[in-house]
Amino acid sequence: MNRSIHKLVLLFSFLIFSCSIWAASGPTSSDDKIGAYAAILGTNRLAKDPNDKTGLLLIKLAAQIKPENDLLLLTQAYMEKNKAIDSVKTKLTEPVFCKLLSKRATTLIETLAKNSKQGPLALVYLQTAELLYPASKSTVFKITKLVSLGFLEELGFTSDLEKNLAVGLDFPKLFEDPEPMVVMKPLKLSKSEIKIFKAALGLGTKRLNKEWSDSKGLTLIRLAGFLKPHDSQYLLSVGLMLRGQKLDPLKLSMTETQLLELMLTRAASIAKSKSQLRKQEALLFYKIVLLFNPESKKALLGEIKLKKKGLESSLEDLLNMSMSSVDTAGAPKISKSLKAFCPSYLGKFKSNLNRGITGILHGNSDNSFSLYINGKKRLSSENPRKEIKLKPGDIITVKAEDFGSPFGFASVFSKDEKRLFSTLSSTWYEYEPKKPEKWWITKGMTRDDLSPAFTGTNQFLKDEKLEGCLESIWGKGGSKSTAYLIYVVQYEDLMPNTMKWISQKATYKASSQYQGPPLASLLSFEDNIADYSFHTDEEDQPNILIDLGKVMALSRIEIQNRWFPKNESRKVRNRSKELTVWAASKEKGVYKELWNSPHGKIYYQVDLPKPVKARFIKIGLKHRNFFHLKHVKILALP
């Protein structure tokens, strides 16, 4: 039970402090007083009992804040020589000191949006106040609110004051080179969600006060945290739970039966949302209803429908999220017309890109193909390579014929021997022409007329460098002899070197070794290798950990699976199913999942919706298998 409760503190990252920013940019007189007062109170405690744990911690705090204090130096000298320590006459009391600690910590918390480096100092001040006056619920709330930000653990700070003082505050540098805290805007809750939150918190509190180990009560508390992770009553409840204290009883707004019915109604409403987070919220509601009532047909049917849409997560994983997630925004409305979209970061290049880029277009299919651009034939099996000018919005259509094998069609467009774009199953599509005799005509066609293309096994346009064709594609995985394929040229396709390659000199380590040590070529792209740069054992959750050397803003990650000889089973490629990318700023910090793919592919391109600041990138699988990749390239916006 305690382990489950302890997890609650780590579940909710990047909360918003709705406070003004007005504190001084450096150490203040309050910090000087805290350092001096800690030395006085610590000395007086040790004068009574040389082994007083609180006194020892106060001396350690004083040494962090005001190391040159005369009284502190004298007390430390006596401690080293095991001499009796003299008490100091003072009117200072521990309650007064606690108020000073709490007030200064509150001020530091208010400045976190400007400088998150002050977080550890605020935490230590509050933990010291709690040490002296453990009954203060205000202090418990502030500590829980601060710890819930998550970044403190990444810095090595925990709920243990003694360990935190051992880590060291590096006090003067906390106010130098401010590091702003990322602030994410939470979703606005509906009236029904607010009702669900209040009911879940109240009913969960009632259950836990009756039976501390009640798992359903804990689930209801965590549901409340999912909806409103920054709520003061919720955070106080978590803080009290972590300390094994009875929760404040709350007024009940409805019964459990009424809560479950309201959750079912809300889930049915948001299950159709375009927002991924809203769909996950619906799935969470269905799973909690089934936890309380396994016979609920509505909940079971709702869960099945979401699963068919590709949404599948455990109850634990869903509860580990919150409505302050970075994915709170609904999916952008995508035009169904076949047009190119210019991303904002390319806005200043748009007019130049609209003029077009001249490069070499190359195609190949194992047996024959014809390639048209905007309704005009440009390439074929007889003439597979040509200098062509492409513009954003140009529509490439291909008729590829393959006699009973899944090798597929491959194409690459390059300039100065550098790839601009190539076939990729995630961006190319299959379509059924309205008139097979004029299959290249796309007038009136929308995205609703397209279906996913699958990965083929054609190796013709590949070499040992990533600058070749990324992936061959095929209509139905080789199940028919003719495929009609389509691609709309995008603005980013024609903009070479728009992103900075930031991982070429990075280092990495693998979770295990199957054949030989990991090769630097994974990131450096130097030296030709046969199949892969590393190969793990068959193990649970195999992975690699990439160290960029410092925190950087990531925007794209390109991942190339191992090469597969023609006689090698497709099953080997499919080992990379559920490939996942995580990121963290500290090696032993909290890793946030950035991306996941359900398919085993030759090439993956991870485009992050917004830059993510991180130093450590973990790439791996969530299941038991071997794991092997050839190349990884991490890029940042210019």
What does this molecule look like?
Helix content is 33%, strand content 21%. It is of the alpha+beta class and 638 residues long. The protein folds into 4 domains: 17-175, no CATH class; 191-319, no CATH class; 344-494, no CATH class; 500-636, Galactose-binding domain-like (Jelly Rolls, Sandwich). The strands form 5 sheets. Strands 13, 14, 15, 17, 18, 19, 20 and 22 form an 8-stranded antiparallel sheet that branches. Strands 3-2-5-12-8-9 form a 6-stranded antiparallel sheet, with no helix packed on it. Strand 2 (368-373) and strand 3 (376-380) form a beta hairpin. Helix 3 packs parallel to helix 9 (161-167) and helix 10 (191-210) packs antiparallel against helix 11. The longest helix is centred in the first third of the chain and has 20 residues, at 29-48. It is globular. Residues 1-24, 325-334 and 459-467 have low confidence and may be disordered.
Note the main sheet. 8 strands, antiparallel
Please tally the β strands and state the result: 22
Terminal CA distance reads 48 Å
Write down the Rg.
30 Å
* Percent range for β-strand residues: 15-25%
Total separate domains: 4
Structural class: alpha+beta
Question: What gross morphology would you assign?
Answer: globular
Runs in which pLDDT lies below 50 for 5 or more consecutive residues are: 1-24, 325-334, 459-467
Helix content: 25-40%
Descriptive key words:
alpha+beta; 4 domains; six-stranded antiparallel beta sheet; globular; disordered N terminus
